[in-house]
Amino acid sequence: MIGKISGRIDYRGSDHLLIDVRGVGYIVYVSDRTLAGLPAAGEAVALYTDLIVREDLLQLFGFTTLLEKEWHRLLMSVQGIGAKASMAILGTLGAEGVSRAIALGDWNAVKAAQGVGPKIAQRVVNELKEKAPSLMAMGGTLAAAVSEETVDVIDTPHAVLQQPPVSTPSKAAHQSDALSALGNLGYGPGEAAGAVAEAAGANPDADTAELIRSALKLLAPKG
């Protein structure tokens, strides 16, 4: 399985790239959000990939982070969500936005993606809500993980390979640490993830301590 591909962008389509790797062109489909953040044709690029195999079709889908790739796989596990719908959701919300929406049970945010109706959006939230905490906690470490298989760009004297951007500690790692801390305090994964997601949404630049304080206030008994 091809888990990562590195090369040069031959051309950019509306929803895909042609990446030249040592003279072989790979068509890689990406979300609108990912495409907007990639360099121009002729520049170096590296993407994590997921290969979908059908009887009559092989398709590569590309992601700038492993967190985005893992959410794609989870979204695809929901009945009624194919690759196109998954990429639409990720393109609309981004990986961290998907984490937050599902942890909070916000199916309206999921429904905002093109081609995703209310019933499908509710199914996504209901089926993945219990899985969101573990993926949020993994967010701080996924960027350092090694992909299954790598196709490397050809070496040239002037080539500087542009590595894919990874989640910064100020977001994914802080949320992961806050989730861990709340778990140690006895809170369940679901309620902890919802509180951390809400706190992170209210203050995207919050560090671990700030997230914990805000989440504890949200989890405190009302009355």
From TrEMBL:
Domain DNA helicase Holliday junction RuvA type: 1-62
Function: The RuvA-RuvB-RuvC complex processes Holliday junction (HJ) DNA during genetic recombination and DNA repair, while the RuvA-RuvB complex plays an important role in the rescue of blocked DNA replication forks via replication fork reversal (RFR). RuvA specifically binds to HJ cruciform DNA, conferring on it an open structure. The RuvB hexamer acts as an ATP-dependent pump, pulling dsDNA into and through the RuvAB complex. HJ branch migration allows RuvC to scan DNA until it finds its consensus sequence, where it cleaves and resolves the cruciform DNA.
Free-text domain note: Has three domains with a flexible linker between the domains II and III and assumes an 'L' shape. Domain III is highly mobile and contacts RuvB.
Top-level taxon of origin: Bacteria
UniProtKB keywords: Cytoplasm, DNA damage, DNA recombination, DNA repair, DNA-binding, Hydrolase
Family: Belongs to the RuvA family.
SUPFAM superfamilies per record: DNA helicase RuvA subunit, C-terminal domain, Nucleic acid-binding proteins, RuvA domain 2-like
Keyword GTP-binding: no
Gene Ontology terms for molecular function: DNA helicase activity; hydrolase activity
Chief place where the protein resides: cytoplasm
Subunit structure: Homotetramer. Forms an RuvA(8)-RuvB(12)-Holliday junction (HJ) complex. HJ DNA is sandwiched between 2 RuvA tetramers; dsDNA enters through RuvA and exits via RuvB. An RuvB hexamer assembles on each DNA strand where it exits the tetramer. Each RuvB hexamer is contacted by two RuvA subunits (via domain III) on 2 adjacent RuvB subunits; this complex drives branch migration. In the full resolvosome a probable DNA-RuvA(4)-RuvB(12)-RuvC(2) complex forms which resolves the HJ.
Domain Holliday junction DNA helicase RuvA C-terminal: residue ranges: 174-220
Location(s), subcellular: Cytoplasm
NCBIfam families found in the cross-reference section: ruvA
Domain III, as annotated region: 167-223
Family matches, as InterPro entries: DNA_helicase_Holl-junc_RuvA_I, NA-bd_OB-fold, RuvA, RuvA_2-like, RuvA_C, RuvA_C_sf
Lineage: Bacteria, Pseudomonadati, Pseudomonadota, Alphaproteobacteria, Rhodobacterales
Source organism (scientific name): Pseudohalocynthiibacter aestuariivivens
Record-given protein name: Holliday junction branch migration complex subunit RuvA
HAMAP family registered for this protein in UniProt: DNA_HJ_migration_RuvA (MF_00031)
Region listing for Domain I, in residue ranges: 1-64
